[in-house]
Structures are given as structure tokens and as C-alpha cells.
Specification:
Cofactor: Mn(2+); Mg(2+)
Shape: rod-shaped
Distance between the termini: 72 Å
Strand order of the largest sheet: 2-1-5-4-3
Strand content: 5-15%
Subcellular location: Cell membrane
GO molecular function: kinase activity
Helix content: 40-55%
InterPro entries: 2C_sensor_his_kinase, HAMP_dom, HATPase_C_sf, HATPase_dom, His_kinase_dom, HisK_dim/P_dom, HisK_dim/P_sf, Sig_transdc_His_kin-like_C
Order of helices and strands: HHHHEEEEEHHHHHEHEEHEEHHEE
Radius of gyration: 51 Å
Domain HAMP: 174-232
């Protein structure tokens, strides 16, 4: 924008300068020409009194020598009868009328083009009633005297005007750009999560900003305040809704305590306790102010998390008679995501298997570890996806009672946060649905998705 304003200022100033300075320069050139011929006419008129008294050649020569043009040999007098006194630049053929028979009073002054300039011819009445022709030579140097200097001065004025306009445009552009960059920086900061950022609209920092950018700054600040209020209301709503779950959770905990002993009872009590902890964590997170949030270590071992979550779901798989298998968990696989987020994503994938397939349907979890990504594959032997695009769409919720359509969206957000992705397809081994969660371990560069095929394994639990 700054360079565009400078170019516009240069173009406008040059156009205005040319519109005024070129006619002015031509006028100066014409003035110099008129000035030279006027001076020549004065030199010719100076001989009028002497020629009116006598036409003697010696007397005329003395009169010519007393003038500036005569002293510089630029003056000549053509007397009646064809006699010429002085240095003439014209021939008789160039003179008006007849130089041999004498000129009449109807002959008027004029100019004749000669070598090196012009000759001014001025008729003058002489002694005896005749007409003499006074010739004054005007060289080209007199016609252009001072014109070159005038053009230089005018060019300097034009350059000065352009420089001043560029300086003014650059100054204005700097103020506009500074204000625009300040607004853009604040927008990026707000987008990165800094809810306290505001654009100054008063004081020294906002001085010189255009009124339009001031209005944009006011609108930005109002938007930021609105975002803060909406987020606060959302946190309060999340806290209130989570608090409503405490009553049914209390009932579940009491019922779980009455189940007695056994693996199923222990698993139920563990699940209720974990659910209570999750609800408490949601309430604390919702009530916590953004600036009070503690620093969270970003990163976990994907193998450890997947092994833990598969072990949790294995108890329910045993009860429902589902064969299952976990493969690829031999070596650690660090990923740049929080442990809780990855656990929630794995729970969403495994929960879909139990929710959308019949009891006794087999499933498998595979981990594929490479240099730049970790892929979690969850496949089952169910009917598969009839519409994969709709299944991953947020809030679609076509899974029947209890389905919100948010599970796969949570998985997708986790993958995209690292530059990875989620793909839905059909399992080549089990024949049902297969979901691939790819997590990039190098998040600074978004790598292209690599197509991987899994070798067939017999899904069987001994």
C-alpha cells in the first residue's frame, strides 16, 4: 500500500507539473524571442532621426557606430538607389519592394530568415522624402537567451514538487500501514488465543490513523469483548450442565457399591469413578479463567495410551464375547498430543465398535509407527459404513439412540491438530469398517498422507 501511494503521488504530481510547466516554458521561450525582436526594433528606430536629416554614407556610418547593434556589426542601412551602408545579411532579392527604384510608404517592417538567425527590416523616412530600409541582424543566440536556464529552473521545481509529494505520500502511507499492521497483529494474536489483546484507538499510538481504520479498531475491540463474554457464558453453561450429572452419578456409584465382588462389579465401579473424575475435571476447566490455566506438557506415548484403553475395553469385550487383538505395540511411539486427548480419541473409536456392531463381532487395533507419523487402525467385522462422508460429519448423529455424531469429529480434530488426518474405509481382513487415525510427529511441516496397507492377521484371542 505504501509503494502504491507513492506511485500514485508521483503520477499525479508529474501530470500536474507537466500541465503547468510545459506551457510556462513555452511562454518563456516566446518571451525571449519577442524580447530579442523588440530590442532590434529599438536599434532600428535609433537611426530614424539621423536618416531624417541626411543620407550621407559617412554620416550614416557614424550614426550606426554609435548604436550597440552597429558596434557589433549587426546593423545595415539600405538607402534609396541600392546603396547599402554597414554589414548586410540580406540580398536585394530578399528585400520588400524594389531596392533600386526606392521603397514606398506602404512597405511595412518584417523579418527575413538568414544564416545564423533573422534580419529585421524596418522602413525609415529619409531626407528628401525617400524611404530607407534599416536591417538589424538578430542571431539565434539572442532568441534563446535565458531559455535553457528557465527550463532548468522549471525542471528543478517539478522535481521538488515530486519529492515533496512523495514525502507526504510516504508519511501518510506509513501511518496507514502502521495502523493496518497493528490491526492485523491484534487479529492474529486474538486468533492464537490471546483474548486480552485490543487495538489502541486513542493516544499516541493511534495518532494519524485514518478514520476508517479507527472505526475498524473500534469494531475489532467490540468483537473481542463479545468473544470474551461468549466464552465466559459457554464455560458457565458447560459447568452447569456438568454439575447436573452429579446426581445420576451419585446414584450409579451407590448402585455400583451394592454389586458386591467380581470383575464386572470392579469394572463398573472403576468406570463410575473415572466418570466422576472426568465430570469434576470438566467443571474445574470450565470455571478456570484462561490466564489461570496451568501449563500442560504436550506429548505422550501413543503405545502406552492405546494399550491402556484397549485393556479397559477388553473387559466389556470379554462379557460380549468379542474376539480382539492389539498389534504393533512393541516399541514406544511418542506423539505431540496430550494423553487425555489421545485417550478420548481412542475411546471414541472403540466405543463406535461396541455401539454400532452386534455382540460377538471381532475387532482389531493396530499401531503403525514410522519416522514422521503414528497411525492407529481400528477395524471390525461389522457391516461397515454406508456413507463415510456423513459418518465423519460433525453432529450428524446417525448412529441411533445415544449417538451425538461428535465422536469421529473429536478424532478428526486431534489428527488435524498435528497435520494428520482421519480416513474411513473397509477392513481388508475383517470385512467391516476400518478407521485410520494418522498423527504426525513432525507438526511443523504438514506431510502428505501416505497410503498404507495392513497385512492380514487372524483375529483370534486365545
Amino acid at each position: 500500500m505504501r509503494w502504491a501511494m507513492v506511485k500514485a503521488a508521483i503520477a499525479g504530481t508529474v501530470m500536474v507539473a507537466l500541465a503547468f510547466l510545459i506551457p510556462l516554458g513555452l511562454m518563456v521561450q516566446q518571451t525571449a524571442r519577442d524580447r530579442a525582436f523588440t530590442a532590434a526594433e529599438r536599434q532600428a528606430a535609433a537611426l530614424g532621426p539621423a536618416l531624417a536629416i541626411t543620407t550621407d554614407q559617412e554620416a550614416v556610418s557614424r550614426a550606426m557606430a554609435s548604436t550597440d547593434a552597429g558596434a557589433r556589426e549587426r546593423l545595415a542601412v539600405h538607402l534609396p538607389g541600392g546603396v547599402t551602408v554597414g554589414t548586410a545579411r540580406t540580398d536585394n532579392d530578399q528585400l520588400p519592394g524594389s531596392a533600386n527604384q526606392g521603397w514606398t510608404r506602404t512597405v511595412r517592417a518584417g523579418t527575413v530568415r538568414v544564416d545564423g538567425g533573422y534580419a529585421l527590416l524596418q522602413p525609415v523616412a529619409v531626407d528628401g522624402g525617400g524611404i530607407a530600409m534599416v536591417e538589424v541582424f538578430v542571431p539565434n543566440s539572442d532568441l534563446s537567451r535565458g531559455v535553457g536556464t528557465a527550463w532548468l529552473v522549471l525542471s528543478g521545481v517539478a522535481l521538488a514538487l515530486v519529492a515533496v509529494s512523495v514525502a507526504v505520500a510516504d508519511r501518510m502511507g506509513t501511518r496507514i500501514i502502521r495502523s493496518a499492521r497493528r490491526l492485523a497483529t491484534a487479529a492474529r494474536s486474538l486468533g492464537s488465543g490471546n483474548l486480552s489483546v485490543r487495538v489502541p484507538v486513542e493516544g499516541r499510538e493511534a495518532a494519524g490513523a485514518p478514520e476508517e481504520l479507527r472505526e475498524a479498531a473500534y469494531a475489532f475491540n467490540a468483537m473481542a469483548d463479545r468473544v470474551v463474554h461468549l466464552l465466559a457464558a459457554e464455560r458457565e453453561l458447560a459447568a452447569d450442565l456438568s454439575h447436573r450429572l452429579r446426581t445420576p452419578l451419585t446414584v450409579l456409584r451407590l448402585n455400583a457399591a451394592a454389586l458386591g465382588e467380581g470383575d464386572a462389579a470392579d469394572a463398573t465401579r472403576h468406570a463410575v469413578s473415572q466418570l466422576e473424575r472426568e465430570v469434576d475435571q470438566i467443571i474445574r476447566s470450565a470455571r478456570r479463567q484462561p490466564e489461570d490455566a496451568p501449563a500442560v506438557a504436550l506429548g505422550c506415548d501413543a503405545v502406552e495410551v492405546v494399550r491402556d484403553r484397549v485393556g479397559f475395553w477388553s473387559a466389556l469385550a470379554e462379557d460380549e464375547g468379542r474376539p480382539w487383538q492389539l498389534a504393533g505395540d512393541e516399541a514406544p511411539a511418542p506423539v505431540p498430543v496430550q494423553r487425555g486427548d489421545l485417550a478420548a480419541a481412542v475411546d471414541a473409536l472403540l466405543g463406535n465398535v461396541f455401539r454400532h456392531t452386534a455382540v460377538g463381532t471381532a475387532f482389531a487395533v493396530d499401531l503403525l509407527i514410522c519416522e514422521d507419523a503414528v497411525t492407529v487402525l481400528v477395524g471390525d467385522g461389522g457391516p461397515g459404513f454406508t456413507d463415510p462422508a456423513a459418518a465423519i460429519r460433525r453432529g450428524a448423529g446417525h448412529g441411533g439412540e445415544g449417538s451425538t455424531g461428535l465422536g469421529l469429529d473429536i478424532v478428526r480434530k486431534l489428527a488435524q491438530g498435528t497435520g494428520g488426518d482421519v480416513t474411513l474405509g473397509r477392513s481388508a481382513v475383517l470385512g467391516g469398517a476400518e478407521i485410520s487415525l494418522r498423527i504426525n510427529t513432525r507438526t511443523e511441516v504438514e506431510l502428505p498422507r501416505q497410503q498404507r496397507r495392513r497385512t492380514g492377521r487372524l483375529i483370534r484371542k486365545d
